[in-house]
Write a structure and sequence with these properties.
By secondary structure, this protein is mainly α. It is 62% helix and 4% strand. It is elongated.
Length: 398
């Protein structure tokens, strides 16, 4: 039982984005609610103060006062309707998603072992979530939606978030900053906290496009409106951008040619993706890859890079996975475990290692099975040397 004891802290290491995404969504709902309240109640407060001021100076007309009061009541009722709609369309659904995800995570705390049926079901759901995440990150949105629907895990995956990411990235690939700037406006406070310069880069790109089209008056006005406010942190770039108005897109001058280069749009896509991942605590790699990396890092040995030492049951040695394994470090084992290259089973006192005359070692069980099928003869798979089973010697590991 102790060997299968569940390490809930380790299981939850990958789950921060799982809980963070709905939190960020609800933060946006809260901000929208706050803006509506401040705007409408601010107007009500202004009218109320004006009405109070006029009443003290006896300048108020009862009919005008009644209209003002009716107007304030109308604004408050309109605010109530807006907030109710916002809660029904965005607030409540987001809270329901948050609640369901937290309940899914809390289920881990009640599980004791990895061998229990409940944990197997939970792990299967987690794998389905990771597969949807991988599909969304690789542009397979239809596959992701189909899998989420089939497994009934729509509330446990972030299809809407990645759909939004794909929409904005598509706009950037078509040389439009409008959608990305709107996203920056919605997340201005959060972007400021992480010291993101995405909005400046987007504004700079719009300025560059005006310069490319030789629209100098529009470019100067744009710079004054949107770039000058960044001068404390980006003055060299702003000064370089100002010089751009005197330089044509066909220039061969390195710094200005790079500004005009279309590859900047690819850089903007990467910068946007990094910013939105950062805000939602999403890793830049698919969660499925990270989980595989963790497993491979605990298994990878120097022998895995030797084609002559490949083990049939070793995931690291599998050609389809070995590409990922090349990016992880070797595992650290205080005590080595010797595995038979024929059977893939561990060699120990119950399954002794046996050595061929050529020095190659395999497990007793695998060699006994081979000898039984070949009239007492055994063959080394590596060197194809054949000998009698009785010629083999036991190996004792100290």
């Amino acid at each position: 039982m102790s060997s299968t004891k569940l390490n809930s802290d380790g299981v939850l290491l990958f789950e921060q984005p799982f809980a963070r995404v709905p939190y960020e969504n609800y933060r946006k709902v809260f901000r929208a609610t706050q803006r509506n309240i401040e705007r409408e109640l601010g107007n009500v407060q202004t009218v109320s103060n004006d009405l109070l001021k006029r009443s003290k100076s006896r300048e108020v007309n009862l009919e005008d006062a009644a209209k003002s009061v009716d107007g304030m009541i109308g604004r408050v009722e309109n605010l109530k309707r807006k907030l109710s709609e916002l809660q029904d369309t965005a607030g409540k659904p987001t809270l329901d998603v948050t609640r369901e995800r937290l309940q899914h995570l809390m289920a881990v705390e009640t599980l004791q072992t990895t061998s229990s049926l409940d944990f197997s079901r939970w792990a299967d759901t987690r794998l389905d979530r990771w597969l949807v995440d991988w599909a969304l990150r690789t542009g397979r949105e239809n596959t992701a939606r189909t899998l989420a629907q089939d497994k009934n895990i729509e509330t446990l995956v972030d299809i809407d978030l990645f759909t939004d990411i794909r929409r904005i990235e598509l706009a950037l690939s078509k040389h439009s900053c409008t959608e990305a700037l709107a996203w920056c406006s919605e997340n201005k406070t959060a972007l400021r906290k992480i010291k993101s310069t995405l909005e400046f880069e987007l504004r700079l790109q719009e300025y560059i496009e005006l310069a490319r089209d030789q629209k100098k008056p529009e470019a100067m006005a744009y710079s004054k409106k949107y770039l000058v406010s960044w001068q404390e942190t980006h003055l060299p770039q702003i000064m370089q951008a100002a010089t751009l108005l005197a330089i044509r897109p066909s220039t061969t001058c390195g710094p200005y040619r790079r500004l005009y280069d279309d590859s900047r749009w690819l850089d903007l896509i990467q910068a946007f993706r990094l910013a939105i991942y950062n805000l939602n605590s999403l890793p830049t790699e698919p969660l499925l890859n990270l989980a595989i990396y963790s497993g491979l890092a605990s298994l990878k040995l120097p022998s895995c890079n030797d084609s002559s030492s490949h083990n049939v049951d070793c995931p690291v040695c599998d050609p389809s996975i070995n590409t990922l394994a090349q990016e992880v470090p070797f595992s650290h084992h205080a005590n080595s475990t010797i595995v038979c290259r024929i059977s893939g089973k561990i060699m120990d006192e119950d399954n002794m290692p046996m050595v061929f005359p050529n020095g190659q070692v395999y497990s007793r069980e695998a060699l006994e099975d081979m000898a039984a099928k070949h009239n007492g003869m055994v063959t080394c798979p590596l060197t194809v040397q054949t000998c009698e089973f009785s010629a083999l010697k036991k190996v004792f590991i100290s």
